[in-house]
Every structure is written in structure tokens, then in C-alpha cells.
Amino acid sequence: MAIKGLTPQLAERGKIKIGGLGDERKKQGSNETYRLPVKHDYITITTMQRDQAGRLIPDTALMEKIKQVQNVQKLTEIPVRLLYDDIDLNFPTRYSCYKGNQCWCTGDGERAQRLGEGEISDTTPGTVRLAKPTEYGTVPCPCERVESTYAQRDKCKPMGTLQVLLEGVDRVGGVWRFRTTSWNSVNAILSSLVLIKTITGGVLSGILLHLVLSPKTVTVPAGPTAGQNMVVYVMSLEYRGPEEKLAELGYDITKKRIDRQIRMETLEVEARKLLVAPHQEAPQDQAETAAEFYHEAADVGFTAPPSPHVPENLKSAPAGDGAPKKPRAATAKAGPGPQTPQGTKRTESQPVTLPELMEMCHKGQELPLHLPIRSHKPGMGNLAILKEWERKPEGESWRYSLVIELAPNLKEIADGLTPEMVVKSFAEAGITVIVANLKVLGADDRFSSASTTPPPVTGPCDYHPDLPATWRDEQGLQRCTNCPGPTQQQEEVVPPGWEGTPAPAITPPPPQARGNTRPQDARKSLF
Q1: DSSP states of 106-154 as a string?
Q2: Hey, which end of the chain has fewer CB within 10 Å, N or C?
Q3: Cβ of 18: how many Cβ atoms within 10 Å?
Q4: Mind listing the pLDDT tens digit of every residue in the chain (527 residues)?
């Protein structure tokens, strides 16, 4: 009987590379060193043995054999065959981010596994818990680290690993792997596989192809040389022959499989069990990948922000709907003071759940105005809309204050959820929330998170900037001693999509009041 929990994997005979490791550099604040990667304009096939410096030893005999057949001095293409018809099995791709010598985060474009962050399914069905510092939790994917304009060293890159058999090798027992983090190579290989599979009618396994390295002129997207042209070397797969011959070859292979009762689908089901994600690889393999493809993060430590606290009564809502969410701005950095969103133009933002909004706050992210807050029940509409927000530095984290407008039919679409429950849940997470339309909802207009965790009274009076504020009223406005407040009243603007809901009479702010006030809205900023 086989050992339980032991997952067999494809044996690796060697690696296919278009670069290597060059000069050594010292890590910041440490005597440890790492080697800078260098790129080549030729292909190198290596064994799995290493020299005294730790570098993989080239398979000179095999490369010379291929060069003699091709009558070339530099190897720029090699004949290969694929094992499977499934593109993802031949060339699995993932977004991956490394810190130090370890994979910190890896995802498929919808969900990612990140070290020390996110959620983990608990042993009790339907419940989740927050990941421990040594565990990989589930978070939305992709994030801002994928963007070409992201300038930090912990950049996320697409990683693809091509698994092939080399033509002309008279021994079978393992594969050669080509790993790349180049957008151009990943896209070129995937495009080649899709085209070839379309022509053959679905067949990829067993067809003689050529892995080709060719130059390509591209435009630098970001950095000091943004906009300039440069030459890069890109890997792709090619079939040598006319399209008609490739189509006929695919037909012949399919016919032979039927005659021999070979079910490729069954073989591929078993093959998927052999795949491992980057964070599941052996520590030595992770360190090699980090050194070659993520050298800029070699001295980046694991300084991830603390995982957000999600109150118990909100944990039943899923953390996301599986769709990629790209934040509008990068994670906030500590500055001299709080920052408020600039401008009042309505933005089309993808809805988030209440736990996701809490997570965004705990990560210090920018929050789009009019951000919809959706229900976790499909087809039930939005629970609320984010009207205003502000954040202030508090130690090593941020303190958020939010103004939200809840849906008039809140109890119907949220299983009896009340405004008081929403405010209390955010207060338990350390986030101040004020509901703008409490009177419309028939709730106690004196209730807000200020009664649970009152924000400090600082700065001048909201109605008399020349006088210091000493107290905060029921609407959350800062007032001076014996402050009479304004006397005018005006009707509040009803958000789009909620027309027909009666709006309460709201006290407008004076022209000189501070805060992020919208001209078309009569409500004074509550901060």
C-alpha cells in the first residue's frame, strides 16, 4: 500500500533556461549575499546537478547533439513534445509574489493564498477563521502589486512553468521544465498552445513542436525609461509544417486513441493531482525561484499588516464573489495627517461585502466614493452606499471614520440586519460608522458608533472655525461651547436608484465648514 498523504510528482530531468545568476550582492542589513540574474540570447539545457558555487551544471552533451542536428553555434530553438492536451497541465500559470527566499502570495486571478493573511476554512462546515502568521489564507486576487506602475520591490509577477519531453533523448522517465515570469513569454506560449490546439481539434500531446527563443521590440511601460523601446527575448512554441498537415496529424492521433481505447481525460484527471502551487514547493525550490526571478525582493522581510478583525455576526458572509478586484489606489502609507478623497465625481465601483470593506480599512486602502456595499445573498441588491470617509494615523495603523447610507429595505435583504447591528459590528472592528439616514429607516437617531467608540474632539468648531470645539452633537458634528448651530434646513439628495424614499430634513453646513463636502449634497461632512 502507498504512503498516505504522499503525492507523486513528475520527475524533473533538467531545466531549460534563457538566463542565469551573475554577480553577488549583499542583502541590506545582513552579511548574506545573493546573485543578480542575467539574461541570455540563447537557450541553455541543464542537468539537476550543481557545481561548488551552487549553479546548475549545463547538459553539454545534449546541447551539442541538438546543435549538430541544427548546424548552429548558439541554441535558439529545441524540439519538444507535450504530455497532455490540457493547456493548464502543460503550462500552469499563477500570479506569484516572493519575499526573501519564500513565496509570500500566489493566486489564479480570482483567489490567492497569502502568508499570514486572509481566511481559512475551519473544521466546522460553513465557518472560517483568520490565518495564523505561518499559514496561507485566502484573499482576493489580483491586487495592486500586479500593475505595471507598481514601484515597490514586492511586485507580483505572472509565473508560468512549461513541462516538456525533449526530442532525441533516448531515455524516458522525467520532464524538462522552463520557468518564466515574463509577460511576453507567458502570453506567447499560451497563444501558441491555443492556436495549435484549435487547428488539431483539441490534440496537443505527442505532437513534435519547437520551443523557440526570438527577439521582440517592446515599449517600457513604467520606470525611469518609460516610453522607450527595448529588445527582449521571448519564448514561444511553433509547429514546423503547413496548417493542413497539423490538422491531419491531430486527426490521426485522435483515431489511434479511439482504436487503442486511450481516454486522455482520465489521464489528465490524475495528472492534475500532481500539480503543486509555488507556495507548496520545497523550500530549496522556492529559494531558487526567488533568487532568479525575484531578486529585487531578496531583502524584503515579512512585514505584512495585521489581519483584519471580522465580527462574529458578519463571518457568515463570503469574503468575495470570485471576481478580480483591482483597488483604485495602492495601499496607504503613513503621512503627516489624514487624507480625504479628492473630487466628488461619482465613480463606478464594484460592490463589496461588509467584511471586505473592513479588510480594506485595516489595510489602509483608498475607498472610492459611492462605493456599493452588497448583500451576500444573490439578487438581493445593495445593503448600503459609502457616502464619505476619512482616515487618521493611529500608531502603526489607521483609524477610519465612515458615513454610509443604508438601503430603505435593509431588514428584508439582510435577514433582519438593523442599523444598530451594522454600527456595532464596525465599532468592534475599530471603525467608526455613522448612518446618514437613520430617521428614514425608523431607527433611533441618537444611535451611532460615536456612542460606542466616540471619535476625539479636535480642532475648531464646525460652525464657528474661529472657536475651539469642545463637544460633538448627535449628528457627529464638532461644536463649540454654547454653540447655537445653523438655522436653515434643506432636503437631502436621494442617491440614484433609491428614488421614492422620503429624505429627512438635514441641517446644511455653513460655507466655511471643513471636510469633504459635495456641492450638490446639503449634508455637512461629519468629520
Answers
A1: EE-SSEEEEET-SEEE-SSTT-EEEPPTTSEEEEES--GGGSTT--SSS
A2: N
A3: 19
A4: 567 766 677 888 999 999 877 667 666 666 766 667 788 899 999 999 988 877 889 999 999 999 999 999 999 999 999 999 999 999 999 999 998 888 999 999 999 999 988 888 877 777 778 888 888 989 999 888 888 778 788 889 999 999 999 998 888 888 999 999 999 999 999 999 999 999 999 999 999 999 999 999 888 776 677 778 888 899 999 999 999 999 999 999 988 888 877 778 788 888 887 788 888 888 888 888 888 888 776 655 544 333 344 444 444 333 333 333 333 333 333 333 333 333 333 335 678 887 788 878 877 777 887 888 876 655 566 778 888 888 777 666 677 888 888 877 776 666 667 777 777 777 777 788 888 776 555 544 434 443 444 556 677 877 777 778 777 765 567 777 777 665 333 333 444 444 444 444 434 444 333 333 333 332 332 22
C-alpha cell at 497: 436608484
State the pTM of this model. 0.56
Residue 295: which residues within 8 A CB-CB, separation 6 or more?
A: 34, 35, 36, 37
